[in-house]
Design goal:
The complex is a heterodimer of chains A (about 400) and B (about 425). Chain A is an alpha+beta fold and about 400 residues long. Helix content of chain A is about 40%, strand content about 20%. Chain A has three domains: about 120 residues, no CATH class; about 70 residues, no CATH class; about 160 residues, Sandwich (Jelly Rolls), CATH 2.60.120. The chains are: A alpha+beta (about 400), B mainly beta (about 425). At the A-B interface, α2, α4, α6 and α8 of A face β6, β9 and β10 of B.
Amino acid sequence: MIKNPLYPSWKQHCFRAIVRAGTLAACLTMSAPVCMADVLSDQLSTLRSIQPGDEKGLQQAASIAKQLSSSKELSLIQVLSAMKGASPIGKNWLVGLANGLHRRSSATQTAELEKFLADKTQDGEARYTVFRWLTDNNEERKAQWLDEMLFDPSLEIRFDAVARALASSEEIDQARLTTLLDAARHPEQVAAVIARLGKAGVEVDEAKHFGFLTRWDFIGPFDNIGSKNFDKVYPVETDWTRNQLADSYEGKTGKVTWIEGTSEGPEKIVGLAKNGEEKGRTEKKEKGPDQGLVDLAKLFNNEKGCIVYGKTTVNVPSDVDCEIRVGCINAQKVWVNGELVIANEVYHTGMQIDQYAVPVRLKAGENRILIKVCQNEQKEAWAQQFTFQSRLCDSTGKAITLAP
Amino acid sequence: MALIRSGYPIMKHPIARWIRPSVLCVFGASLSTTFSTLSRAEDWTQFRGPRAIGVAPNASLPEKFDGQSGQNIGWKASIPGRSVGGVIVVGDQVITTSSDGMDQRRIRLLSYDSATGKQNWEQQWVARGRPYCHPTSANAAPTPASDGKHIFAFFSSNDLAAVDLEGNLVWYRSLASDFPKAGNDVGMSSSPVVVGGVVIVQVECQGDSFAIGLNAEDGTTVWKLDRPRKANWSSPTTVQLPNGKTAVILQSSEDLMAISPTDGQAFWRVPIACSTTSSAASESGKLIVPSGGLTALDLSSTGTPSELWKENKLNPNACSPVVMGDKVYVVNRTVLVCGDVFTGKVLWQLRLPDANQIWSSPVVAGNRLFLFSMEGACFVVALDGEQGAIVETNKLGDEVLGSPAISGNAMYVRGATSLWKITSQ
């Protein structure tokens, strides 16, 4: 009998069915992890890119977080690695996921986490999260590692490293203090190191080290009765933008002209003055190192309900991306080279160095800065300050280099 | 047992061979869930607990305890960082927040086993809003809240997150990133409430100032209400209106509003200047508002409530009033004042010796009021006499600014750096 190929035998049917089933099984087995990896990658990508105000993205993220929280395919290192380049909001979604995964992870993952921590190209916040996981219950390891992390690219790790060095009960020699000064970026730590160097006989120009803007020309007062003129465009603003400032303007109560003002340090009480009697001794005060503080209340006779403008220039050797950082207890606006970069209509809710920080790009040569400081009419004792400080630094807090 | 068409009883039908194990797996998985999803009467799930009045009428707490000797201290858990917020209790979990790291940017939500004090889980994020605050305060200032299924953590930096009862992230929002001028550099402390599936927070300051209702399931915005651009640390509270609807009370220095939690629409508005630190309380058809001292509004009628009484000697200062039965209690600096909730008449005053500052709102267990000073001294005041009387002054040995929680016969206190369980059991 001749076998017709169009009509295979039952054996051939079975053989073909077995081959097809095996092929399908192999495809499913091999493609499943590949597909799942793609899905996870897409999901992490969605979380990484969440932006403020994105309600739809938020809904999507919540759905993804629910799925990923119970995912057995997702690895802790994968989530931590995804934080690199993620948006700030995205990083918090990812670190939230990572915390859950870490809780469920085994001790064998320690080596992987140490490797992640050692990789300085990874996201700084992710690395600090890992650092805390690995050291929160191990002071000896924390101390050992921090000793080697003074110049870590993660500002959080660096902060802990400098803090540990400063907290040491041992005397810190001058060389070590100089190293710490180079390492420190947080203003409080920088100030602490400078103070210690001062006690060791080494004077550091604090204002220069921080990059404070110390020399200004001011004009005012202009009216701000009722705190209504924060957005009022006085001629000073428009003329400054055009770089055509006049010598005088019509102020709150008459003609006003430019006056020089320089910054100073904070006033602190250092004891009681001796006046021969125990009763009625007055406080003895002295000024601390120049921290770029400009006392507008002193310059403008405690004027209330007013606005003062200040202008200055800085020269840089080449184009540079940096940050202008302002501390101000009053409402303020700041312009750099004609562009409004800071605007906060906030009165008397605290003040500190680097309170407001924004990125700016300075051009080689002269750059012009204008600040508008607004005082209101509050009568409380804690609402009388009229002051600000400002500095230029890189994104880590180190002062930028100015042209000589 | 029901039969299906084949004539087999359901559980004996061949298909049930695979249904049964699946059902058992699901049921078993439910049982194996570590933390109960059922809300209990003893839960303390928000600032000032059930109905936000700071009262656990059936609780029995030890009058005497000592942080140093351990007398009647169930356990103490040291927590990294600092918090001035209160504690909540959900099932067998005690939940608190903390903030630490550079500029207090590391914000944490922590869960502890109520029986042992052992940490169940921890979540953390990086503050994206302004973390600055007065040295007395902390970024971890608001008290968390829970609907029994999720826990909502809010911080002074206006970071808001939801986790499930096992600490898994459900959603996260940076309200300061959504509204960049939201912030107060002396700190913000308004605590969230959860009503009908909506998480409500007040973010009131000189910049972007608003109240917002978010979907508890995914954090999306349900409604947003512009609010006066002035600092406000008070917290929203909820009331039952005569028509049976639940309203959320928002107070500010300009007015008092009752709004719908589902859409933010106002039911009514009263133009009175309210405290921006102490929060209102509601009991028995009255709304006790920190305004002009205290002002009582009548909630028993529909429409805008009328004033029942106002008494400036019942000034709650920084703490929120406690209402129990026919009495209201306020802490006016370092004096505990008791008033009649029906008339506002001052019934008695009790000086709290050596109390320097008091920020923690008092709580009542049975007929004993417990009040912590910032230095960690706890005044235990008997309320069952004609005049309040201090029966004990206990030292915890920890700074206390957050308000305690009471669950069962235990009081949970968040010290600035530790979490305490006070119980005689």
